[in-house]
Amino acid sequence: MGKSCRLLLSLVALLFAAPALAAPCGGDFNAFLAAIARDAQGRGVSRAVIDQAFAGLTPDPAVLAFDRRQRGMFHTKSFEQYAATRVIPARISRARKLMQVHAALLGRIERQFGVPAPVTWTLESDNGTGDMGKLPVIRTLATLAHDCRRTELFQRELIAALQIVERGDLPLRDLIGAYAGEIGQTQFLPSSYIKYGVDYDGNDHVDLRHSIPDVLASTANLLKTNGWQPGAPYTAGTPNFEVAMREWNHSEVYRKTIVLTAQRLSGG
Known about the structure:
The protein is an all-alpha fold. Helices cover 60% and strands 1% of the residues. The protein is built from 16 helices and 2 strands. It has helices at residues 3-17, 29-42, 47-54, 61-70, 73-76, 79-86, 89-101, 103-113, 117-120, 125-128, 137-146, 151-166, 190-196, 212-225, 239-248, 252-265; strands at residues 135-136, 176-177. The protein has a two-stranded antiparallel sheet. The longest helix has 16 residues, at 151-166. The protein is globular and about 55 Å long. The termini are far apart.
């Protein structure tokens, strides 16, 4: 077992063994960070990593404003409206070319995990060539965790982000993501990064920003771990769609768009 695998297992064990998160939301931001720091240390994050991550940290009002605007996005757009903006010829053409370049890798991952190649690498960040987000993940998650609407969710994600730095997967300067703290080419939240990340290029780090082997294997691993049935259909109403793919994204509109993209990439 490699060093990264052993560290991953130990961090997961700490995550499940630790007491419930208890940092009080709202109020003084620095006091909130101090409580998070105590929780993070109890889950295996070193004081050095915490001090580096929290140095000079302030809430980001733009993150809160975006969060309030975007929460209903998939509820206000139909599948047809959303897919029309995402499943477009330029994206399909780009994805097909990249899949040809990485055909051997994709074939190996499909054989190992049982997930078709067009599903593992579809919408998010235009196959790693587009926008993966430009916001410091720690600041984003600390902002959302301090806000009392979903504090427990984002406290867990904030500590998972610190664990990513602790185990050496990404340095703090590379822990950059989107408006809810999503990281990398397939936009994993930090907890999914910790839980499903695979070091597929063998360098002892799970790098979901730069390593295409890690990105594709980790996405396939997420689906397999959540019950993906190899060779079975994955359209709406099937177990693959309703269970395995839901762990990736809870939005039915988004999952239907993944399916349509995969069908287009497969010639459907």
